[in-house]
Design a protein that fits this description.
This is Xanthine dehydrogenase family protein subunit M. The chain is globular, with a radius of gyration of 20 Å. It has a five-stranded antiparallel sheet with strand order 4-5-10-6-7. The chain has a four-stranded antiparallel sheet with strand order 11-12-13-14, with helices on both faces. By secondary structure, the chain is an alpha+beta fold. 37% of the residues are buried. Helix 2 (84-92) runs antiparallel to helix 5 and helix 8 packs across helix 9 (250-282). The chain has helices at 68-73, 84-92, 98-101, 106-112, 118-125, 144-147, 169-172, 226-236, 250-282; strands spanning 8-11, 22-25, 41-44, 53-56, 59-63, 129-133, 139-143, 148-150, 153-154, 161-168, 175-181, 191-197, 204-209, 216-220. It contains nine helices and 14 strands.
Length: 286
């Protein structure tokens, strides 16, 4: 898509003030996918020089300019490897060509705040925290679940950008279960749920995306029963909060969310029981 209203584009000069019609340019897969008549200048972040992925003691930092391809190829080290499959599943949920994979950025997917954004699903489910930066150099941190405020809406201020998102060590060590539903085999996500079981305290976190207008996180100190889970979902996502578009009606999205949530609950609960039995069998006899 040619953006015929653009009069200026180039590397970021941080001292320049923000002007009406400005936009940050990451991979550009969204900006160049449809008309943007309100834009006049693109401020290109591709030359910012941010390392795509950085392993730190506190967790994994993913730069906003990290591409889906770079994330999908990254091998999680040590105790984080338990979630290698989850990263792959979320990357594949783009259902995009290799061209998109090599250009689309994690930050762009988060900032676009579309309900079906799989990077939102991944980072919200792993307790991701965003580092936001203003043009004057001021910084603030915000959980991914609070960055996305609605369908296509985010909490960024004027001229503010997403610098990176950090996935904490504790969340990366949790055992996870992934479920996704779509009207078509290669269609956009209509419901994408991720459950995470904490191996230390046994708590369970369920993240609901794609079927809702913004990420919904439910936390249980212990894995809930089927009835408790269903009631919690009904309370967290009241009528009118289910997303409605050509990729799925609200009632169907609600039905699939409840069904997938129960599947996740059973999978993680069964896995916990098996792990406990394995530990008991391997324990030395007294």
């Amino acid at each position: 898509m040619d953006l015929h209203t653009i009069t200026e584009s180039g590397p970021v000069h941080w001292a320049e003030p923000w002007r009406p019609g400005d936009a940050w340019l990451g991979g550009g897969t969204y900006l160049f996918s449809e008309p943007q008549p309100h834009l006049r200048r693109l401020r290109d972040l591709s030359g910012a020089g941010w390392p795509p992925l950085t392993v730190r003691p506190e967790g994994l930092e993913i730069a906003a300019t990290c591409t889906v391809a770079q994330l999908s190829r990254f091998v999680l080290p040590g105790g984080w490897a338990v979630n290698q499959q989850l990263v792959t599943q979320c990357c594949r949920s783009f259902l995009a060509s290799f061209k998109i994979w090599n250009m689309a950025t994690v930050g762009g997917n988060l900032c676009n705040a579309l309900p079906a954004g799989p990077m939102i699903s991944l980072t919200a489910a792993l307790d991701g925290v965003c580092l936001l930066r203003a043009l004057d150099g001021g910084e603030r941190r915000l959980p991914v679940a609070e960055l996305v405020t609605g369908a296509g809406q985010n909490a960024l201020g004027e001229g503010e950008l997403l610098r990176s998102v950090t996935l904490p060590d504790a969340a990366l060590r949790g055992r996870t279960a992934f479920r996704r539903a779509s009207l078509h085999r290669h269609g956009r996500s209509a419901a994408l749920l991720i459950g995470r079981l904490d191996p230390v305290d046994g708590s369970l976190t369920l993240t609901v995306t794609a079927s809702t207008v913004r990420p919904v996180l439910l936390w249980f100190p212990l894995p809930p029963g089927a009835g408790e889970l269903r009631r919690a979902l009904g309370s967290a996502v009241p009528d009118g909060s289910w997303f409605d578009d050509i990729h799925g009606l609200p009632d169907w999205r609600r039905h699939m969310t409840l069904r997938l949530a129960e599947e996740i609950r059973r999978e993680l609960q069964d896995r916990e029981v098996r792990d406990r039995e394995d530990q008991e069998r391997s324990a030395p006899c007294g």
